[in-house]
Amino acid sequence: MALPSTIFIAGPTGSGKSSVAVELARIIDAEIVSADAYQVYREMPILTATPSWAERGGIPHHMLGILSVSENWDATAHYHRATDIIADIHRRGKTAIITGGSGLYLKFLSHGISEAPPGNAELRASFASRSIESLYAELQQLDPDGAAITSPSNRRYVERNLEIVIVGGKPLSYWKNNWQQSPAGPGWVITRDVAELDARIARRASQMFEDGVVDEVRSLPSCSVTAERTLGLSLIRDYIRTEISLLDCRNKLALITRQYAKRQRTWQKRESWLTPLTATQSTTPQLLASQICASL
User: Fold this and answer.
1) Stretch 87-99: mean pLDDT
2) Residue 70 has pLDDT above 70, yes or no
3) CA 30, CA 96: separation in Å to the nearest integer?
4) Which contiguous run of DSSP H or E holds residue 274?
5) What does R_g of the chain's alpha carbons equal in angstroms?
6) Which among 142, 138, 118 has a CA at the least distance from the CA of 130?
7) Shortest CA distance to 71 belongs to which of 49, 41, 92?
8) Predicted TM-score of the model (pTM)
9) Tens of pLDDT along 33-44?
10) pLDDT tens digit string along 53-65?
11) Which of 41, 57, 9 minimizes the C-alpha distance to 289?
């Protein structure tokens, strides 16, 4: 069969998209390119749930563990490096499977880079001393519609969206619609019952502690501003400082991951180009991969 040069597999954290990507890559002899914002960091594979060598199943994976946590990273840098890798995969006559849960990273690779204003280091530095509440209030004042689609509890997005509005001088709606019309290839999004997904997330959070995530965090060198935003990092540091118990740490890690998964599901529902791929507790990655193949 004639295969598309690029395929996208999305899904909230814990949905099993990485395993499906591996199985699909095995069937069609493809390579995998990560669209995850934090799996680029080599020193915290446990905390970022980076697929292990065994989980990669011998399939080439790109954009994993390529940076030290001391380095800053963003969607634009990811786009430029990943597109070079994707072009090389295509030159070798193979399909690139793009998978990851970071919405903007995936969107850049699927629809091209949005010409939003570049980051402003001086402005971002001024945000550091302000509360998230004051930043969100300013965003509400400057762009009420943009604030309405921005989670007031997600500091990263509040800061970036406020930065876009201030530097660009236009509302978020202007920049958010600045994409190429057609995706670079077909895409699927893995969906699961929320209760089942929550249970999978709880098991993953517990497994992280068994795998040594506390020692991993304890041994980290000084982290960049970007790396500091890794989900669960500050929480585990609270446990290391004995500010919370191990049980509280595990429960809170599962909670914030569920909240993150909810935001991912909201974003993915808006991406109408992604075809839903329903998974249940008994569904295997091999079955989901075969369903994608049948659609191809």
Assistant:
1) 97
2) yes
3) 6
4) strand 274-278
5) 19
6) 138
7) 41
8) 0.82
9) 999 999 999 999
10) 999 999 999 999 9
11) 9
